[in-house]
Amino acid sequence: MSSDLVYKSAFELAQLIRAKSLSPVELTNAVLQRIEASQPVLNAFITVCGERAMSEAKAAEQAIMRGELIGPLHGIPLSVKDLVATEGVRTTYGSQIYRDNVPVKDAVSVARLRRAGAILVGKTTSPEFGTSPITRSPLFGQTSNAWNQGRTSGGSSGGAGAAIAAGLGPLAIASDGGGSTRIPAAANGVVGFKQSLGVVPHDSANDQFGNTSYITPTTRTVRDTALMLAVMAGPDASDPNSISRMPVDFVGATTGDLSLAGLRIGYRLRLGNDAVAEDVVREVTASALAFRDAGATVSEAEHPFNNIEPVFSTVLMAYRYAQHGKHLAQHRDIMCPTFVRQIENAPSTSFEKIYAAILARTEAFHAVQSWFEDFDIVAMPTISRGALSIDHDHFAPIEIDGKTVDVVRRAWYPYTSVFNLTGHPAVSLPSGFDRDGLPLAIQLVARPGADALLMKVAAAFEQLRPWAHLKPALPQLD
């Protein structure tokens, strides 16, 4: 089938639907057909809501024909990561334990997008409980990279990243607990935005006061990300971090003045890691030069920073054990061995070590915050090299430029989890390709609350180095 329709942005599709030049039925049907064709190739979905989606598309079409007032995303297909609750549609958390779990209500973000007119087409894949940068699970297998099916789609929102890159709908809800939106976005060449803590309510977080996880958008264009966040954001009584958040004009940030004149942008190639691929260095450097040519003041950020992975892992694994350690006695044989291995040592971690890691979050916040005394935006890689092999062992070292370096969490994405700990907004944007033709990405970071500024700079970068016209070769679908 032709990819012309399914690769249009949500912004374009919404305009066509409003003008009655495109039927939501035609669009939804095209996306569902493409999802079906993609499953043997990518395995990006665990559940597809075909009948329900078509029923909602027909209702959306009838509403337009009756001249009713419609929302900003009326008739636009939406996928939701399998960690995020969807009313009446199973949500398994990538786990055999919850394979038949069907929530009775939508997560706040899902409900808001559906009220705006978006149509749920399915649930995208995630590793068990979202605790791996490689999307594979005992429940559904593994998810391939859209650009090379021998490589991983990243994780834990690997299904969302691959789906957006492959034209399986323009909008995806992902989640990001340590880079889980930005890593797949980088690996698949799409946009992954992790907003400031509390901008989007996270009503299912078990620890609302120590939360490091975010419900996030994944799209192909910055404006589509802004459209999603404009709907998803805003206070909700379920999330104390969101209650005092003021409205942010995300769409206006992408459509107004995108001048970078006078903006101070710092860039850095490392964040406590020793190795970064030459291709990544090339792309980050080229991106910095593009910002400079556009009028920004650009210089290297040299603030010292240690690898945050030991702190992050201690906090995360203690949290995950508290959430899911109860399953080990009864369900270990059907759980993902990678997940089990990550959490089974958590009970032996001392209270002192756990709370020392919690205190280190504050130290990390102050360290990152100090960057913004000198800069408005800090740019860096999202991942240190292109996508890993789809069969890569979570605990094994990775190779960079032919040399064996450190394990995945410390060496592939040392740039992401720190901002989950500190709450700073960060966005991953496509920046080019490596020598194997795999996407590479640049990550932009701003001070907490500067989400609109971050969105503006992301939109400016998209104009400087466009990417949305680039599509992976998927002959099985096209």
Could you please describe the fold and organization of this structure?
- The chain has one domain (10-464): Amidase signature (AS) domain (Amidase signature (AS) enzymes, Alpha-Beta Complex), CATH 3.90.1300.
- It is built from 16 helices and 15 strands.
- It has helices spanning 10-18, 24-38, 50-65, 108-115, 158-165, 182-188, 222-232, 250-255, 278-293, 309-324, 328-331, 337-343, 351-371, 408-411, 417-422, 451-464; strands spanning 45-48, 77-81, 119-124, 136-137, 141-142, 171-176, 191-194, 214-219, 264-267, 297-300, 377-381, 397-400, 403-407, 426-433, 439-445.
- It has an eleven-stranded mixed beta sheet, sandwiched between helices.
- Strand 2, helix 4 and strand 3 form a beta-alpha-beta unit.
- The longest helix has 21 residues, at 351-371.
- It is globular and about 60 Å long.
Number of strands: 15
Largest sheet: 11 strands, mixed
Annotated CATH topology: Amidase signature (AS) enzymes
Radius of gyration using CA atoms only: 21 Å
- What distance lies between the first and last C-alpha atoms, to the nearest angstrom? 5 Å
Strand content: 15-25%
Q: What is the CATH C level class, in words?
A: Alpha Beta
- Unreliable segments (pLDDT under 50, ≥5 consecutive)? none
Total count of domains: 1
Mean pLDDT: 97
Structural class: alpha/beta
Helix content: 25-40%
Q: Based on the structure, what is the oligomeric state of the protein chains?
A: single chain
CATH homologous superfamily (4th level) name: Amidase signature (AS) domain
Question: What is the strand arrangement across the widest sheet?
Answer: 1-3-2-6-8-7-14-15-11-9-10
The coarse silhouette is: globular
The DSSP helix count reads 16
CATH architecture: Alpha-Beta Complex
